[in-house]
Amino acid sequence: MSDRIEKSIEIEAPVSRVWEALTDHEKFGAWFKVRLDGPFVPGEVSTGNITYPGYEHLRWESVVTAMEPERYFAMTWHPYAIDPDRDYSAETPTLIEFTLEPTDGGTRLKVVESGFDELPPERRDEAFRMNEGGWAQQVENVKAYVESA
């Protein structure tokens, strides 16, 4: 198993529009299926509720680590933290990085989630497998959201 998930997708839209879909908390929530309590702010915790069918009972929590306008957005979180009765706070979170690059046809979005090797062994493989599939879907979601705007 790898320590990182990497996904890349071409989006037929300017970098500014893709950036807005990633960093505006309401737009992010629309394609990611989460209702966030407030805007993303570097160094602060982002909270909210998952709105994906079947997962509405779960809370969202991440920490924004970087926002370099129209280029790089990063946050940490506890991947596949689906047991509402478990405290994941002692685990080392993974790092999610969104990198934007202009292309002739619009924007290349690269998503990397790394740090799975730091997860507890009993959670590592399933968290990686679920997030591998999750990011495959989410890059398609953001593409569809941005291109339909």
Automatic annotation (TrEMBL):
It comes from the Bacteria. It holds the Pfam family AHSA1. SUPFAM superfamilies: Bet v1-like. Residues 13-147 form the Activator of Hsp90 ATPase homologue 1/2-like C-terminal domain. InterPro entries: ASHA1/2-like_C (IPR013538), START-like_dom_sf (IPR023393). Belongs to the AHA1 family. This is Activator of Hsp90 ATPase homologue 1/2-like C-terminal domain-containing protein.
